[in-house]
Amino acid sequence: MYIYNSLTKKVEEFVPHTPGKVAMYTCGPTVYHFAHIGNLRSYIMEDVLEKTLRYNGFDVKRVMNITDVGHLSSDADSGEDKMLKGAKREHKSVMEIAKYYTDAFMSDCAKLNIKTPDVVEPATNCIPEFIHMIEVLLEKGYAYKAGENIYFDTSKLESYYVFGNQSSDDLKIGVRDDVTEDTNKRNKNDFVLWFTKSKFEDQALKWDSPWGVGYPGWHIECSCIGMKHLGEYMDIHCGGVDNMFPHHTNEIAQSEAFSGHKWCKYWFHVHHLNDESGKMSKSKGEFLTVSLLEEKGYDPIAYRFFALLSHYRKPLTFSYDALDQATATYKKLKNKVLSIPEEGEVDESKVEEWHKNFAETVGNDVNTSMGITLLYDVLKSDLNGNTKRAIIDDFDYVLSLDLLKADEASEGGEEDELTAYVEAKIEERKQAKKAKDFEKADAIRNELLSKGIVIEDTREGVKWKRQ
Ligand code: AMP
Ligand code: ZN
Predict the structure, then answer these.
(1) How far, in Å, CA of 306 to CA of 326, rounded?
(2) Fold for domain 2-270?
């Protein structure tokens, strides 16, 4: 399998630390609000990555955190605590907010056929682990106390900007104009490991620590939760591109300073879904959620299909027109699949051959659109119905588009089914004519005629109508 690695900026062969086993980590959501469909684009593509690894024979253990403490409105340790902001907005406690939005996130993921990671761990579960890591960082001289907070000292590292291209100006990303710089920091990019003398006096969640009552910074959770469940070596770490700096850069800094060796080999970053006005945001206008799409009559799986049509390393623009188009294509595809006749013996050798082909195609840097193209190739092939069904079912392990699940997706009901059936027959006739099997071509025309469908060969292709 090949994956683009943000650390080396190259597509590389994926070779895990322990042969055959993959330690995979995903930065989870900050549960102060619903996830928007941009966030979910990242989780869909990470889900496909996990399933592609499994499809290629790897034994994957995937861990995800839930950020329920420590994430401030600026990624650079300033601004208001996001969780507190959510709690105030809804007149609830931070823990109530965390529970409500964690459940909402899990339910969105289920609707999008995103598999739940093997381990899902809220940050607030792991305070002793955070304290331990911070103590070690202090002992090793990578951390210091200033203004009662504990900071990571980025000047102690040989190279801090591991993803390249960043300059100190990058710290401005996400920093609001009204946020003042933290003067306790020795270096501009130092980051908080533990807040003790918090300027947020109404901070709801606080824990005792060797440095006084306080709460953890945002970045420490992913290093600790990752190590707690996956050990000191991680194979692949995922997140949206905005996580690259400062979050992932800081995760690497503290994890490698802690363990004294390289931590994670491959970094997988999903590019953003934007709306037509630019960046997708939770505070701007109509906030695009899975529930909103459902209210508007869209099938969440059609959104998954929309996401799979594009490569994860390209920004994607969302519009209802684009989603309408994807929905129509998805319905047509699904109806085509559902109308495959259940006939013939499954040819296992063919299933295996296509499995290999699909594993290589999608395994080439999670090329989902090429995977979908392969699906159409199966539909067009001259394999018998049951073999086609078996292959598509196998592909759908990765794509998770419910292609063989007959349900309300064909809301157009009988009409859609008829269209799919006729189109499949027309395709079959085309193939027969190509193979000069005119007898079969005529038989298909007659079969359609017996069902009241007339087909006509025109210069623009085959047209059909009801008699
Ligand atoms: P958050 O809940 O803000 O911590 O974000 C959850 C995940 O969504 C992170 O991996 C982010 O990098 C990712 N993310 C944030 N905005 C977008 C977007 N517009 N498109 C894709 N992924 C995003
Ligand atoms: Zn993280």
Answers:
(1) 5
(2) Rossmann fold (3.40.50)
